Amino acid sequence: MKGAAATRIVAWGIAITLVVLPVVGVMQGWFAAGRWPVTQLKVEAEFTHVSAEQIRSAVLPRLGKGFFATDLDDVRRAIGALPWVESVEVRKRWPDTLLVRIYERQPFARWNGNRLISRQGQVFDAPGADQMGDLPRLSGPDARLAEVVSFYAQARKSFEGRAQMSVVGVSLSERGSWSAITDSGAEIVIGDRDQADRRLARFLDVYPQLIAGHRGGFAYADLRYTNGFAIRWPQQDTTATPKVGS
Question: Cβ distance 167 to 179 under 8 Å?
Fold first, then answer.
């Protein structure tokens, strides 16, 4: 019994010491803000859109403090505020090094002209977004972003293997009408989504015959007719409306 009591006393003594030591350390300046300053910065990043200079500018004002006083959350927030940063990992390595791992946003499409959508589905602003012409062009109300992305995938699938053209963008109007843009710049007005598959299939079924003799392709197609659609050819004011079975 006495041995067990002595063990408990020793254990409590160790626990109390572990609690008191940090307090004593602070009191004596062991963990003071300027003690063991962080002077080294090591960064892992793709450096595709985020530059080393941007990272240095965000981090340097937060270095120079003591190893224990450097606020990792503060550093993480500063780097995370950069336009192209998706996520950040920050940790310390004794005695003077800050390790940073940066994951950049991967743009999937342009949104409403001057914004971008990441592959994680986040809309963000970034310098030069309006110059990224190789990205799909999507537009519509912000609240219906997911629906627009879904329709874009649906429209691309409809064109696969059925015409010598592809869909590079879609838009949803405030009134709920859908349109698609082809790689030649032609606009295809589709209308309601619940009829999109049927209307696109009807258009693509006769497209090879329609395009025969028109090397420049069409400029505009309106598929909202009950039994057909309207086609406008480049540099022509007249509109032809072939009638096809519904």
Answer: no
